[in-house]
Amino acid sequence: MATAETAVRVEDKLFTNRYLVDVGRPHIKVKPHTQPSEALVALTRICPAGCYAVADNGQVEVTPDGCMECGTCRVVAEATGDIEWNYPRGGFGVLFKFG
Ligand code: SF4
């Protein structure tokens, strides 16, 4: 069992990944809204890559740079109509590094 001294932080693990941004073509979009739904607010806490945040105007925004395509936000918020989710185009998106 990992102790506080031996535990590896998620941020340190994610740092080993690389991400190729498809400029101007984000693969996840938040639908326009004035008040964020509960599902959208939940995404600001559950996305392991921290791609969702509440902006100064109170709306939830997504910055999919760094998205690892885990699909969590898709499961939580696509069916509610809060987000539009697609895989990145071929050659773009996360590049996992192993070892
Ligand atoms: S697919 Fe996963 S990593 Fe990517 S934005 Fe959604 S919750 Fe975050």
Structure explained in plain terms:
This protein is of the alpha+beta class. The protein has 3 helices and 6 strands. It has helices spanning 10-14, 38-46, 72-77, and strands spanning 18-20, 28-30, 52-54, 60-62, 83-85, 93-95. A two-stranded antiparallel ribbon has the order 1-6. Strands 2-5 form a two-stranded antiparallel ribbon. It has a two-stranded antiparallel ribbon with strand order 3-4. The longest helix has 9 residues, at 38-46. The chain is globular and about 45 Å long. The chain starts with 9 loop residues before the first helix and ends with a strand. The model has no long low-confidence stretch (mean pLDDT 92). Residues 28, 47-49, 51, 64, 67-73 line the site of iron/sulfur cluster (SF4).
| Strand percentage | 15-25%
Mean pLDDT: 92
Strand line-up of the largest beta sheet: 1-6
What is the helix tally? 3
Tell me the major beta sheet: 2 strands, antiparallel
Q: Kindly, what is the distance between the CA atoms of the first and last residues, rounded to a whole number of angstroms?
A: 21 Å
